Amino acid sequence: REVLIDVNNLKKHFKVGRGQTLKAVDGVTFHIYKGETLGLVGESGCGKTTCGKTVMGLYQATDGEVLLDGVNIHKLDKKSKKKFTRRAQIIFQDPYSSLNPRMTVEDIIGEGIDIHGLYKGEERKAKVYEMLELVGLNKEHALRFPHEFSGGQRQRIGIARALAIEPEFIVCDEPISALDVSIQAQVVNLLIELQKKKNLTYLFIAHDLSMVKHISDRVAVMYLGHIVEFANSHELYENPRHPYTKALMSAIPIPDPEEEKRKKRIPLEGEIPSPINPKPGCRFVARCQYATELCKKETPKLREIREEHFTACHRVEEIEKSNTIEVL
Ligand code: SF4
To answer: In this protein, which residues make up the domain named ABC transporter (predicted)?
Structure first.
């Protein structure tokens, strides 16, 4: 399979005063195949949105590289950067604040077309109408303003804006989190349909694991700036191996109430710790029931434990071998 995006040891750190550094993304490596969806999941504050924005070039990387067709997007000159933005777009989390309230829908969708000088006059208008229809709206909506639409419709406008310049790669940054549950599935289904029609490649960022399962081919689980587990979607959901992923999975509600009652929940104590000056060792140590002294000293590397299934945990084999493992 052909790789479109190759991310190598990517870091994004922020100086936050008094010699402190917030390590939002701290050395992540993954690739995204052409035409697939890679899900990136984790709790709020794990660095997934910063990761998405750095992959898009909206943040300059502190270290590491993001290759698109082998070219590092963080080393582009202005002209090449513009070409890159035509190939890669982002759909934002909040459809309420990401659309300019003073612009008509036609101008919101047409803005990218103008920046890249793609169409003018009637052709531009026709492209805007085509995009509106593609996302389930119509040309009657073109002269209206964002406040006249519901949240789901606004997110459709955001999707139309991203697609108007015919990108190949889209970072979907929690595109459904701000929407009503009843609308979420509609927007996810629209994204799936558009992916097939336009052969799009997605990085789909979310904290909702059930939605990620529905849309993703492969999934990376992020915790405090690190990727702790990575596998194809089916494998990850059937066979999670990292203690953090197991806890996240066990919290997904099961529709059948009887099965839900029988399910063993793995408690995830406390909040995600601060990413400011994180200590060495496993980032999950403070919340992990299996932690040992080694976990405090050495950061576990992401290693392949089954075919195409990677986990960063010193004790993953021991935990698997025994359900009665001694809790230290
Ligand atoms: Fe838990 Fe240690 Fe594995 Fe980290 S490395 S997840 S602390 S057992």
So the answer is: 5-249
Q: Which residues line ligand 1 (CB under 6 A)?
A: 243, 282, 284-285, 288, 290-291, 295, 300, 313-315
Say which residue the tokens 């690739």 belong to.
Answer: 31
Q: What is the pLDDT of residue 260?
A: 67
The answer to whether residue 34 is domain-embedded is yes
Do the domain assignments include residue 328? no
Predicted ipTM of the assembly? 0.99
In this structure, the residue with its CA closest to atom 6 of ligand 1 is 313
Split into its structural domains, the chain has a count of 1
Going by CA atoms, what residue is nearest to atom 5 of ligand 1? 313
> Residues 137, 160: contact at Cβ < 8 Å?
yes
Q: Is 40 exposed, middle or buried (0-12, 13-18, 19+ CB in 10 A)?
A: buried
Measured CA angle at 159 (ends 10, 167), to 5 deg: 60
Residue 266 belongs to domain spanning: 3-321
Answer yes or no: is pLDDT of 286 > 80. Answer: yes
Distance (Å, whole) CA 263 – CA 261: 6
pLDDT level of residue 132 (50, 70, 90 thresholds): very high
pLDDT tens readout for residues 241-256? 999 999 998 887 777 7
Say which amino acid occupies 40: L
Give 254's DSSP letter: P
- 224 found inside a domain: yes
Which amino acid type is present at position 188?
V
Q: What is the CATH number of the domain that holds 19?
A: 3.40.50.300
Cβ neighbors of 307 (< 8 A, separation 6 or more) are: none
The H or E element that residue 204 is part of is strand 201-206
Question: Does a structural domain hold residue 327?
Answer: no
